[in-house]
Write a structure and sequence with these properties.
With 493 residues, the chain is α/β, with parallel strands linked by helices. The protein folds into two domains: 235 residues, P-loop containing nucleotide triphosphate hydrolases (Rossmann fold, 3-Layer(aba) Sandwich); 235 residues, P-loop containing nucleotide triphosphate hydrolases (Rossmann fold, 3-Layer(aba) Sandwich), CATH 3.40.50.300. Helices cover 51% and strands 12% of the residues. Helix 3 links the parallel strand 2 and strand 3.
């Protein structure tokens, strides 16, 4: 894989100069086209220490408008970042529509270092390769251009450059301890890097190996590849993306019309069970914190079904320092201009904490689908993307609980009417609630499809019968406590 750069003949100096001028002019023009077409471009720079990644980056961006690009170095993850899923810090850095984002070291650097220093098992490595492939594909499916460059120099050339940098105190600081170690273990690193690139090299997101011995030649290779990639991406930007067949194990779920909504609980029984379950949950949360188990609770349901009251009884049992409730509304402009899951990746909990979502990532296959806020291809493709997202969370070790709070149409009407006629409750009812009610049958069809296609064995849906709100609250608390007890038993230590 790495040696593929040998197939590209190096031009003479004059030709390199002429072609660079053309490429820089073209890139400057493309930036305006990218902005107009809202094409986001993510560029990953990986390679050997002292191969010149920083220098080339500086040359690539010199003709770009600084308002529409940013560059960041993602080296070893911090202690805080290690408490989040592996992909979180990379998802966080994806660019907005119409902008460039340059990553100086990214997911390759982190994964290969863990292999070299024996910090990850073969199972973890395999899972992370799968994560990377899904991450990159999902970005391209959602309109991103992803370009991956590996800057290659020989062992002899790296040794020469490191020695030259070490000669002056003004440049010696550029040499990291890992650069020295990498040079001393060049052959071992070569094998690990080569294997990683072979396993993450795809036809749609290939690796580009850059001959970095000559800086100007390296710059030209990057520039021409970048310009060509943007040209193709601009032409493909509005094309429909093929749908992917589901590969995740699904649980057979009933349709909403089949749910018995007559279930109820007496006031006395409710008070007793509520106190008992909240006490149990409080103790389980302490254990989950100690064992580093993250818990993600996702609430969806009909308007006026009782999400707020359900969440209130759940959080009453939790240490306020160990949870956060995320009320999810329509995406803001800066959220809308990124991958639709970005705003959820940045809200994930740390290990040992709860993240409770009042409305969720499932908006794409409900309100966005029915209100025309995304294309049919977008929401059809989303079922697989949502299953993949939750599989990442499950593999990380999260307990994922998804609740659909269900009521019938008559109950909703009664609650809407009560809100409208009660001054202190009127803030809870809006014109949009009434408009959504008119589309009840369409929403029911969408919810049935959503539950059928995304109730996986690792993140199943739980339907809470909420004509009696108290019954739904107790059922939710039982599911949360039982799921936590199971996770704690499976967690060693």
């Amino acid at each position: 894989m790495i040696e593929t750069y040998n197939a590209i003949p190096k031009p003479d100096t004059d030709e390199i100069k002429q072609r660079l001028e053309i490429a820089h002019q073209r890139l400057s023009e493309q930036q305006l086209l990218m902005k107009d077409s809202k094409l986001p471009v993510l560029i990953l720079f990986e390679g050997w220490g002292a191969a010149g990644k920083g220098t080339i980056l500086g040359q690539v961006i010199k003709t770009l408008d600084p308002r529409f690009f940013s560059a960041v170095s993602l080296h070893d993850p911090s202690t805080e970042e290690k408490r989040k899923p592996f992909l979180t810090r990379f998802y966080t850095e994806i660019p907005e529509a119409g902008q460039f984002k340059f990553l100086d070291v990214g997911w390759m650097g982190e994964i290969t270092k863990d292999v070299l220093f024996e910090r990850s098992s073969k199972h973890t490595y395999k899972n992370r390769i799968g994560s990377v492939l899904r991450f990159e594909r999902s970005l391209t499916d959602n309109g991103y251009l992803v370009l991956k460059f590996f800057f290659h120099i020989s062992h002899k050339e790296q040794s020469k450059r490191l020695a030259a940098l070490a000669e002056s105190k003004d440049t010696s600081w550029q040499i990291s301890d890992f650069d020295v170690w990498e040079n001393e273990h060049y052959d071992e690193c070569y094998k690990v890097y080569d294997k990683f690139m072979e396993e993450t090299n795809t036809s749609t997101i290939p690796w580009y190996v850059i001959d970095a011995k000559s800086k100007k030649w390296a710059e030209l290779q990057v520039m021409e590849t970048l310009v060509a990639g943007i040209d193709v991406a601009l032409k493909n930007h509005t094309l429909t993306v093929p749908l992917i067949q589901n590969i995740f194990p699904l649980i057979k779920m009933p349709k909403l019309k089949e749910i018995d909504l007559k279930k109820s609980i007496s006031d006395e029984e409710y008070k007793l069970e509520l106190k008992e379950l909240q006490t149990k949950l409080r103790n389980l949360h302490n254990q989950a914190y100690r064992k580093g188990i993250p818990i993600i609770v996702a609430y969806e349901g009909w308007d006026a079904a009782g999400k707020g009251g359900n969440i209130k009884r759940l959080t009453a049992a939790l240490d306020p320092r160990g949870y956060i409730v995320h009320p999810i509304a329509s995406p803001k402009p800066f959220e809308k201009s990124r991958h639709h899951l970005w705003r959820f990746w940045i809200r994930l909990p740390k290990t040992g904490h709860f993240a409770i979502f009042d409305r969720t990532w499932y908006g794409r296959v409900m309100v966005e689908r029915l209100e025309g806020f995304c294309s049919e291809n977008d929401w059809q493709r989303a079922y697989n993307e949502l299953n993949e997202f939750e599989k990442e969370l499950s593999d990380w070790g999260a307990v994922i609980l998804k609740f659909w709070i269900h009521i019938d149409k008559d109950t909703q009407l009664a609650r809407f009417t009560d809100r409208q006629n009660t001054p202190e409750k009127q803030w809870k009812i809006t014109d949009e609630d009434w408009r959504n009610r008119e589309k009840w049958d369409l929403y029911e069809q969408a919810v049935d499809e959503m539950i059928a296609k995304t109730s996986t064995t690792y993140a199943p849906w739980h339907i809470l019968e909420s004509n009696d709100k108290k019954y739904a609250r107790i059922k939710a608390l039982k599911i949360v406590t039982e799921s936590l007890e199971k996770a704690l038993k499976e967690k060693k230590g």
